[in-house]
Amino acid sequence: MVICMKILKRLFRYKLTAIFMIIGQVIVLFTIFGALGVYNKAYNKENDRLRSLYKNVIQMQITASKKTDVIFGISNDVDKGNLIIKQKFSVAILELGKAYLCEVILKDNESLKYPLLSGRLPGKEKSNEVAVGKNKAKAAIKQGDDLFLTIEGEKYKIVGIIGSEVSDYWDDKLLLHMDSMGDSVKKALANQVLYAVELCSDSDIEEKIYSTVYGNIKSYDGDSSIEAVKVNSDKDSVLEQTLAKENLKINVIAYCFCILNCMVVSEFWILQRRKEYAIKKLLGMSDIRLIIDMMREIIEISLLSCCVFLVIYMVIGICGGLGVSITLRNILLVVGAEFIAVLGTMIYPMYKVLKNKESFKYI
Amino acid sequence: MIEIINVSKVYDSSGILVKALDHVHLTIKDGEFIAIMGPSGSGKSTLLNILGCILDYSEGHYLINGKDTLGLSRKDIEQIRKSEIGFIYQHFALMDYYTAYENIELPLLINNVKKSSRVSKINEVVKLLGIEDVINKKPAKMSGGQQQRVAIARALVMDANIILADEPTGALDQKTGGEVLNLLKDINKTGKTVIIVTHDTKIASMTNRIITINDGKITNDSYNELLK
């Protein structure tokens, strides 16, 4: 305690520069953590996206010539892979007051890639079932132990919450199964003329399966058009694109600005201390020892800034936090970025100390 | 012993060369009490700074106890300043946020002296200079005379053989100045070499030897026979 007080007293002997230095360092820490938060968020989201991909996918854009029930017969005799309607189909949710895109499982021969936080995926019972992401679940009506949503005017039981602990990739999902769908949704589906259907599998999709799907569509609607694209292992990361949408650049600019700010403040730092350094040099202190002294002081002020940051961080943590988990990688990144900031701060004072001849005139 | 052999110092002031010292010869024996006099800009402070190994010289040789400082490394020069020379300045050159004790302790810390030894050395000089009552005060809370005593204590604590004083009474009133000067005289009596830069003839007359500098040259070097 006594040592801490002594250090604080020493650090705050020139109050204004100490305060400016601490503010600069705290902002540096916030920008680093902010950038890390942005990066982590994008990274986890990207990982969740990659985990949701199948090894082989045939994407089909089906344009029906008229409103038919083509979609209900599409999965006949499909005994390999999964058939899922993705994009371009939305259903109205009463509790949320508007329509949302949903995915519909038409056929599941393989395990489906929807991670569950709780419950199961729809399709097990013949009654109206739905699985939703966290955001949709928030709007659900609770009845007893169960949650319900009104989709296209019909009540659906939420049988599972889709989601991941690390990202919000799944939070807005709405997943239905052909076998557990009410008449209204089926009607809405039948009224579509445009469908985006994916035939997906982790094993090779044989030509025969696609031919079956193609045949099914044509048998219901001979004039429909089908555009199919085979996508092999779409596991290439689009992290950079994801990051580009985030505020990472702002954080990097703020970080650079703060280092510049610390460099400017360090000039005032040395101006205030030049008499001290001159006296120490006069009494025979070596340049190395002076630099170590200076480093110690700047590191002490950086540690103090870390403490200030942690207090603020904890306060923010109560209000939702910065979204950064404490991992070895993150710690190393923070230490590295902080080291660069400290080094940047020290360049000018070090230069002044090493410029031997001029220093004595400040005695 | 200090020997200045043919030393010159030239400053480069924005391309204009100014000769502050011009081929100065000087020998100072151990235990001398010297005043260096001269008008402003005559080169007396330059000479003192060269004697204190603060300033490099352009030409000649400067020997301390037979050791030429010309070829010495920065580390060796620092070592000389640390152990051989004590400095006293007109405006005291004290660390503002240190107490008197911490100011006196500073050279000992720089010399890595052990704590027990530090305490005894500090107590010794504090007693010698009669500054026990201000030992825990910071310079701002002390009078000019007290500050100068602390500065002298700091110069003495490492037991340096050479004491260089640049206008040591310049910022003090006559009475306090006289006391400080008497202190320097007492220090000289212990066998230390004391060199004072001053423009005050009254102060100079209290020393054993007066060196007068004009335009970078020694124009007079006389011994005070009465005090010798």
Structure explained in plain terms:
The complex is a heterodimer of chains A (363) and B (228). With 363 residues, chain A is α+β, with helices and mostly antiparallel strands. Chain A contains 11 helices and 13 strands. Chain A has helices at residues 2-11, 15-51, 70-73, 134-138, 183-190, 207-220, 239-245, 248-282, 287-318, 328-354, 356-359, and strands spanning 56-63, 82-85, 90-93, 98-101, 103-108, 116-119, 129-133, 141-143, 146-151, 154-162, 174-177, 194-201, 225-232. In chain A, the strands form 2 sheets. In chain A, strands 1, 2, 5, 6, 7, 8, 9, 10, 11, 12 and 13 form an 11-stranded mixed beta sheet that branches. A two-stranded antiparallel ribbon of chain A has the order 3-4. In chain A, helix 8 (248-282) packs across helix 10 (328-354). Chain B has 7 helices and 10 strands. Chain B has helices at 44-51, 74-83, 100-110, 115-129, 144-156, 174-189, 201-204; strands at residues 2-13, 16-28, 33-37, 59-64, 67-68, 85-89, 162-166, 193-197, 209-214, 217-223. In chain B, the strands form 2 sheets. In chain B, strands 6-7-8-3-9-10 form a 6-stranded mixed beta sheet, sandwiched between helices. In chain B, strands 2-1-4-5 form a 4-stranded antiparallel beta sheet, covered by helices on one side. The longest helix of chain B is centred in the C-terminal third of the chain and has 16 residues, at 174-189. Chain B is globular, with a radius of gyration of 17 Å. The mean pLDDT of chain B is 91.
Structure, briefly:
The complex is a heterodimer of chains A (363) and B (228). Chain A is an alpha+beta fold.
Q: What oligomeric state best describes the polypeptide chains here?
A: heterodimer
Largest sheet of chain B: 6 strands, mixed
Distance between the termini of chain B: 18 Å
Number of helices of chain B: 7
| Major beta sheet summary of chain A | 11 strands, mixed
Distance between the termini of chain A: 33 Å
Low-confidence stretches of chain B: none
| Record field, number of beta strands of chain A | 13
Give the overall silhouette of chain B. Answer: globular
Along the chain, the helix and strand elements of chain B come as: EEEHEEHEHHHEHEHEE
Gyration radius from CA atoms of chain A, angstroms: 31 Å
Spatial sequence of strands, sheet with the most strands of chain B: 6-7-8-3-9-10
Strand coverage percent of chain A: 15-25%
Global structural class of chain B: alpha/beta
Binned strand content of chain B: 25-35%
Quote the average pLDDT of chain B.
Answer: 91
SS-based class of chain A: alpha+beta
